[in-house]
Amino acid sequence: MKTLALMAATLLAAPAFADGHLPDLGGRTVTIATEDAYPPLQFKDPASGDAIGWEYDAMAEIAERINITPDYVKISWDAMIPAVSEGQMDMGMTGITIREDRMEMVDFSDKYMTSEMKMIVRGDEDRFTDAAGFAADDDLLAAAQPGTTPFYVTVYDVLDGDEANPRIKLFETFGAGVQALRAGDVDLALSDSTAAQGYVNASDGGLKIVGEALGTEDFGFIFPKGSELVEAMNAAIADMAADGTIEALNQKWFVEYQIGG
Q1: What pLDDT, on a 0 to 100 scale, did the predictor assign at position 145?
Q2: DSSP secondary-structure letter at 158?
């Protein structure tokens, strides 16, 4: 892996593409931390086992536009931000919400997507239809990943603000929480609307979304503080938004693609 100093030198010396509006990073390898557990942004294809999704397609586009070679490294969510912050990886991606507390550890790209937080329940759930109904029944349990936006929304917007509330059951991955929901071990899982709809579409009626959205969140890629990659990534994201590529990816992964289909 290149040192940050060598990477900085490579970037500063990089020429521009012929069209003049995007940098050329000379084919340099960029190590990218991924989780592969956040459909349809990134996940394992049930048929092939390959890692696929919106973010992989977007990164392939970015790689072509700014001339980099992605090197994906799978890592757990709770280790991702620390690993990127410490420079063990050049960047990270897994539907990461842009938040001020995280900005103290890493730099973010410009947002590439805005999503809404949704409540996922079993398909036959009839005990509650919104956050207030869930909070009012002390027997109901929620799945969450520690340190994630859904965890904090569960704590502060759904329950009582107590991070140690025993009604919150913690899982290492979002997928494990959804499995617990389907098995009846918990009664609610929260996710951004992109991943939530992906799981619902793949559940054959086993899951559904209830209630109003619990706020919105912007997604961005993360980088070590001061990384020169941020400017190049932002240029590529803006270029993809301007020429319709991001809209096309949204159509492919959130409308046309069916997980498990």
Answers
A1: 85
A2: I
Alpha-carbon gap, residue 111 to 98, rounded angstroms:
8
How far is the C-alpha of 229 from the C-alpha of 232, rounded, in Å?
A: 5
Q: What percent of the chain has pLDDT over 90?
A: 64
* 83 contact partners, CB below 8 Å, separation of at least 6: 33, 75, 89, 92
- Strand partners for 217: 115
Please give the Cα distance from 159 to 135 (Å, whole number). Answer: 6
Q: HSE (CB half, 13 Å, CA atoms) of 256?
A: 9
CA dihedral sign, ordered 188, 193, 195, 200? positive
Joined together, the tokens standing for residue 222 give: 């993360």
What's the whole-model pTM score?
A: 0.68
Nearest to 208 by CA among 80, 140, 119: 119
